[in-house]
Amino acid sequence: MDIDDILAEVDVHAVPRQTQDLQEFTRAWVTERNAPEILPWPDALMQRILERIRRQIELVEEQTGNTDPKANFRLIIFQTELERFKFLVRSFLRARVAKIDAHALHHLTDPSTKARLSPSELQYATTHTTLLHAHYRSSFLSQFPASLQRMDDTAGGMSMVEGPDVDRAVFVRALKDVEEPVYVEGTDMAFEMRKGDVVVMRWSAVREVVIAGDAELI
Amino acid sequence: MYGDHALKLIQHAKRTQALAHLPHYQTELVRETTREVRDLDKDVSNILAPFQGSFNPSSEPATACSVLVNHLCMRRNKRCLLAYHRVRSDKLEEMCWSGKDVLDQEQQAGRQGNGEGSGMASEVGNQSSLSPEEDEYVRQYGDMLAAYKGQWTDIDLTGSLEPPRDLFIDVRVLRDAGEIQTEYGYACHSLTILCQEWNY
Amino acid sequence: MGSYYDIDAILTDAQKVPCTFDLDMPGLGYLDENAGGDIKAGTRVSLPLWLSTLLAVQRLGPSSQPLCTLDLPASISPRVLAALKAGPKTVDLRQLTSHYYELAARVLELFEEEEIVDVLSETFKERAAEIADHAHNPRGALGEAQDFLRGLDEMERQLFRSAHDSSNAMREWMGETKKKR
Questions:
Q1: Which of A63, A105, C38, C68 could form a disulfide with C19 if both were Cys (CB 3.0 to 4.6 A apart)?
Q2: pTM, whole model, 2 decimals?
């Protein structure tokens, strides 16, 4: 029995929005860190979290200078919570940047992957790729014959543009009973996921279930 | 044999991956590998020139094989050069993220190597382990990173990736620093913690 | 086949395998350390994987033969395989070649050699267990274990490193939870 189980038992509607958001974001953070590919940008959730951080910073700034010892203690609690929130967001963003950097061209050329980036991530990826290519060009590539200057060749059975390894193994826990059995592509394996089940599975097989929110990575 | 220079570059790259710092850019090997590509390309043109565009591989298997080998060598060199530069640029980017001023450090290293009395930036650049192109790349990447970071001012994107444990950190004061202004005003309540270290 | 930018994949591709040219190849003598000369049909040359595997599958016409034929490299010769079968942990793989398993995997894609595949998988399994044992037990890195660890191929080294790091991280974490209590 851990905190997730306890939280899951509480009626969702009885939990205040803020707690729900934190729980949801923590889950998104863990999933993003463990999934081999980048996940859809949680726009609305992110807006709410950032708005809350901004308000909290304002509050802390207002309260600083208050000499009442009680207020002072409260301030320390606020700041501690604030630091934890900031850490979560930072770590989440950095995990995404690391994935974008590792396969920048893939993120820019594959339409479904591209759609998962936030506008500022898309801009980062575009600029980074442009800079990197310019760097290659000025270092050596411009002296190559024209036919060899491409960055997206697939000659010789090997593509220069690679995506992440979506068949990497991940640990998954079902948050509810998954109605449809999960099929493992390329094999004749299928299995059912009941609430609370923990399985080790290749990411590609459980991706849909996780993105739908029926399961989480651990 | 073709590809030998490229292989040396890759062996350098392999060692670089295990190092904390960035070793010297292999200007000569990069130049040799690039030249090899141009030579191979010329070779291909020379081999194919007599056929005037009507080359039929199955009737001239030996010629076709030469052309193929040349092509494969060029592609191999390209892959090695890209991978070598990628390993280095990855390392440079990592330095940018961790907040090290790469160019400044390089200049300092260069100055030490140059001895005193030399102030010219170009001379310093010669001593650097970065190529001039890498220098430029770091500058541009740094600018871009600053722009991306700027969209997340509340978060401090390049901050620590260790989960926070304590709100305050211990500071050992080595030199009188006068009044200290912190993120949220004066360091009033953290002074107790500062004081614990004050005795050293 | 490994990723385009992956240094280990590129090093794997640099490993050489013997191949035999099936035709006279004028001007290709430099492949056989005979620059400017020719290669006669039937000549055996050692060529890196990035060159040999592609030449071996290349056919110039619908009915013609491939340009050259590959042979199994010495590192998976019957002699080595017999040694691996007899004692998987006593063979110094690194001395044979730095990227042993990956070389074998690349070559065996082009051959029908189920038995070799079986021997190598069995070898990897036995050695992996031994590697994990050493990684979790730091004292194991001394004495005779040193010989074994020195003979690991690149993939095994990485396995050792990550097993070692994870056991350290685990110990650190356990220590921290204890401290809190």
A1: C68
A2: 0.84
